[in-house]
Amino acid sequence: MKKRMIPLLFTVLVLVLGGCMGPSEGTTFSRSLLKKPWEEVVKQAKGTDIRLYMWGGDESINRYIDEWAAPRLKKQYGVKLERVPVSDTQDIINKLLTEKQAGKNKGTVDLIWINGENFHTAKEQKLLWGAFADRIPNVKRYVNRETPDIRLDFGEETQGLEVPWGKAQFVFIYDRNKVKNPPKSMAELKEWVRNHPGKFTYPAPPDFTGSAFVRQALFETTGGHKQYVRGMEDERFNRKAEKLWAYLNDLEPYLWREGKTYPESLAKLDQLYANGEVWMTMGYDAARAAGEIRKGRFPESTRTFVLDQGTLSNTHYLSIPFNAPNPAGAMVATHFLLSPDAQLTKMDPDHWGEDMALDPERLSKEDQARLKNMDRGEAILPSDKLAKHRIPEVPASVVNQLEKGWKSHVAKK
Amino acid sequence: MWQRSKPYLLIAPATGAMLLLFVGGLWEGVLQSLGYRPLVGQSRLTLQFYETLLSSADFWRSLGLTLRVSILSTLAGGVLGLMISVCLVMLAGAGPFKHSRFWRHVFQLPLLIPHFVAAYLAVVMMIQTGWIPRLMFALGFLDQPADFPVLVQDRFGWGIVLTYAWKEAPFIAWMLYPVLYRTQEKWWEVARVFGSGRWAYFREILLPLLLPAWMTASFIVFAFTFSAFEVPYLLGVTYPQMLPVWSFEMYTGGDLTKRPAALAVNVLLAGMAVFFGWLAHRTGRRFGLLEGGRWE
């Protein structure tokens, strides 16, 4: 009898220690930080480490953080930043959700790069720390938080839970040597695809970029984006979307592999483009093509285009999770990443190339001049052209409706 | 007391981790597939997710594809693995055959490569603008690279089967190798005295010895290919998806209400793997395949 007791006891012990600790309230103490003066936050952050969890799939973005931002943050504020790459921001949300479920009040994530559906989930499940945006001096000074494209994250009120970091815009990417007159609308795209069978496709939703392409098509085939900004109930949406499914199904026989299958990810579509198997790819980042040319993956003749009616754009944000071990450090890092220097450097295609979150009019004279003289190369459309062709994102509910509908109306056909 | 309990204590950490991670994970999965999600205020258990799954045509189509691909992969890997192991023994010199070490390393190679790398390699090699089609085009076997058959993201799943066969055959071979290695040279001599040829020696002596290990190894491969995600994700088509891919997509799709269904798929996968394991064991015993030859 006794010899069976020991392993049993041990197992019970392991189980108890490992998994069954009950939840307790513990984050409230760190929220008092939100009331403290900024100097105190900076003082508290000095000499600490923070972990920034972010999508790690882009070499130039990673280098911007590791080689440009982290050393300067350390030097100016004594905060050591460690970048933790994830393949999908969803993974962080899942991790936080699990930690919340398990009642783990001291996590490992200090700062996350987030927007859209993930922000929606995080806000709904109360995975975020608090309304810290007002507390960051550089946000107050340089960010115009009243414009809808910053206040609303895919239609969701940000309520100061996250701080805008940059702006991305959907662009089509093509090879100038193969495509002489890039289409200017979805209707023209359809013509082009019919005339060049097998040379176009898009990543299958729920791939992020593929899903954006389908939204783009939705707006143009059903009369604009405005009707979707507040979400739409299923029945009405399904009636509206019939035109979209018809459009996509008309396209299908002329797609790569006759639309029998779609690339499962943007990476695969890029590979097809790089191999010359298709002649266009796309990206939710106006500077991505330029980066790929520099890496030698895309041909030199690669260019980008937007549609006359505009392409989707969104703002992406930095936020602090509910169980961040070092919120003070995270606040200071946010402040630093929103400084004009950090933002202008980020805009430089040698670093990252994407649009800044700051309001250009609020910048100093010197910074405005620096912005004006920036040469971003031929594969990035000029800032004002991008800005004029920008349409806002729609709520996550529409994204879900689309992804579900695409599967049953397009993929299964 | 100490003497007696020592072995238990020593295995306790491993058992503990197993229980916590494996049994705990399974338990949590079953609970969540029954709709138990206290975080969103749902703590009533329901079978509705299983009902919707089992009554959807998508599920059965995916299951059909999953079964087809994993059975074909197992067969291909199993036959290939058996051939490799026999080759290896021939080359190693136990029995009627010659020596060589080089080949062992060649056959070990796929074991070192993770599955997703193997799948990615398959894409790079076999996609219609990949290395193999271009090489065949350059050598004049094809009029244009696009004449190469569609083996990546094809509806049937050949790309997945080929990748699994390449990846799992060495695994099976290395499960069989120790069994073969124990056969002794003199057995072959004795067999020859009784007038046995090579084929008869293989069929009458080696094969019966190998079958139990072969069945086990093949079943491991089957259970793996039946429920692994990365290869079908990279090489499969948009629709129908193999069950693991479908489940992964539902789980990570951002819509939390789909998670119970995703886990229900996983629980069904696990259940079916157990069922097939039991079936394999039973058939094996019935036909005397699991008893193995006698060594003495």
TrEMBL record, chain A:
<dbReference type="Pfam" id="PF13416">
    <property type="entry name" value="SBP_bac_8"/>
</dbReference>
<protein>
    <submittedName>
        <fullName>Putative spermidine/putrescine transport system substrate-binding protein</fullName>
    </submittedName>
</protein>
<dbReference type="InterPro" id="IPR006059">
    <property type="entry name" value="SBP"/>
</dbReference>
<dbReference type="InterPro" id="IPR027020">
    <property type="entry name" value="YnjB"/>
</dbReference>
Automatic annotation (TrEMBL), chain B:
<dbReference type="InterPro" id="IPR052730">
    <property type="entry name" value="Sugar_ABC_transporter"/>
</dbReference>
<keyword id="KW-0472">Membrane</keyword>
<dbReference type="GO" id="GO:0055085">
    <property type="term" value="P:transmembrane transport"/>
</dbReference>
<dbReference type="InterPro" id="IPR035906">
    <property type="entry name" value="MetI-like_sf"/>
</dbReference>
<feature type="transmembrane region" description="Helical">
    <location>
        <begin position="7"/>
        <end position="27"/>
    </location>
</feature>
<dbReference type="InterPro" id="IPR000515">
    <property type="entry name" value="MetI-like"/>
</dbReference>
<feature type="transmembrane region" description="Helical">
    <location>
        <begin position="261"/>
        <end position="280"/>
    </location>
</feature>
<keyword id="KW-0812">Transmembrane</keyword>
<feature type="transmembrane region" description="Helical">
    <location>
        <begin position="205"/>
        <end position="229"/>
    </location>
</feature>
<feature type="transmembrane region" description="Helical">
    <location>
        <begin position="156"/>
        <end position="177"/>
    </location>
</feature>
<keyword id="KW-0813">Transport</keyword>
<feature type="domain" description="ABC transmembrane type-1">
    <location>
        <begin position="63"/>
        <end position="280"/>
    </location>
</feature>
<keyword id="KW-1133">Transmembrane helix</keyword>
<comment type="similarity">
    <text>Belongs to the binding-protein-dependent transport system permease family.</text>
</comment>
<feature type="transmembrane region" description="Helical">
    <location>
        <begin position="106"/>
        <end position="127"/>
    </location>
</feature>
<dbReference type="GO" id="GO:0005886">
    <property type="term" value="C:plasma membrane"/>
</dbReference>
<feature type="transmembrane region" description="Helical">
    <location>
        <begin position="69"/>
        <end position="94"/>
    </location>
</feature>
<dbReference type="Pfam" id="PF00528">
    <property type="entry name" value="BPD_transp_1"/>
</dbReference>
<protein>
    <submittedName>
        <fullName>Putative spermidine/putrescine transport system permease protein</fullName>
    </submittedName>
</protein>
